[in-house]
Design brief:
nine-stranded mixed beta sheet, EreA/ChaN-like  fold, alpha/beta, 2 domains, single chain
Length: about 400
Amino acid sequence: MVEQIKQDAVRLTNYDDLDYLINEIGDAKYVLLGEASHGTSEFYKTRAELTKRLVKDKGFNFVGVEGDWPSCYELNRYIKSYEGASTSVDDAMKDFRRWPTWMWANVEIEELVEWLKDFNSNSKQDKKIGFYGIDIYSLYESMEEIINYLEKIGSEDVKIAKRAFSCFQPYERTEQDYGVSASFLSEDCVDEVIALLMEIQNHKSQYKHDEESSLNLEINALVAKNGEEYYRSMVQGGPDSWNIRDMHMVEALNRLMDFHGKDAKAIVWEHNTHIGDARATDMKEEGMVNVGQLIRENEGQENVFAIGFGTHRGTVIAGSEWGAPMEKMMVPPAMSGSWEDLMHLAGEEDKMLLLGQNSTSYKETVGHRAIGVVYNPDYERYGNYVPSVMASRYDAFIYHDQTNALNPLKQI
């Protein structure tokens, strides 16, 4: 396999070399850009450059990221220069308060946001590029956004929204407590959030008072409905909570595509574990699905181009446990025999590799490193390598031999 990589790989010496992948993407409607960690600068910078090219050269309409809808929507309003939006990118970033804040509140994203804002300044309002969070975690924040908006426009639907929100209030924003109560004590808020989502969908035409307000309301209601189900299933274990989350992200993408019209194109930024086809990993045996698999199944593989990312060694931003302070950690050399080790043995330069056209060459199952927001380098060989058939998991792969930690806005 090392010899095959040597033969097939294309050097990535500067961002102009990305022309190679831009050409291969062709007419795909969805370009899925992965990352092997949530805290590596090179992954963010390379995805940003690909995003710029896709926007300029391929007419892509929006970026959907593994982030909360309310906080990312503030960036979207800033990028599109909406009335009342933040006047600076620093102000727009202040909504990223949920741990891990560094995922989106970082220098690399600030630079992309400023580029998108500048690009939009020369575009008509309905052609401006959007930036949206498609994740599921912002249950409380999304419900507050709904109530604030409905109160602002004087809608009677605010009563239903407040009734739903009051159902969650006894848990004092501790979603896990709600999950325990809902799962084991049958004290859930299912009826309330479903009623809220249905009411907002039925009255969608009434909410078009300003830019994207109807979309904003609809996705926040979707987060409330699916977020309730996610936290209820999370405490029970098994694959359900993972599947609910990834299915929510696909549903959010579908609604964004509908909003942007029949010719819409989406760029998706998520971890490799979300955008790489789950059927090519051990996730399949565990009953798990993911965004990459579902979009390929729903849209046809010819309309989707998934790019995985990886590194051999370097530094990364992560926490030692959930909610812990962020740290700059060492990423040790990849485990012997892993995909990253094979890429390194094939040459220490940064490189790109097409996988689909050489499917017979990369069909062997190998360990592929995945670093989450929680990380312990000393124990990574015991749980950070996902058995993967690379040719089936991605259409292409970008490899940075040595990488550096992301640059959070908040100093470490």
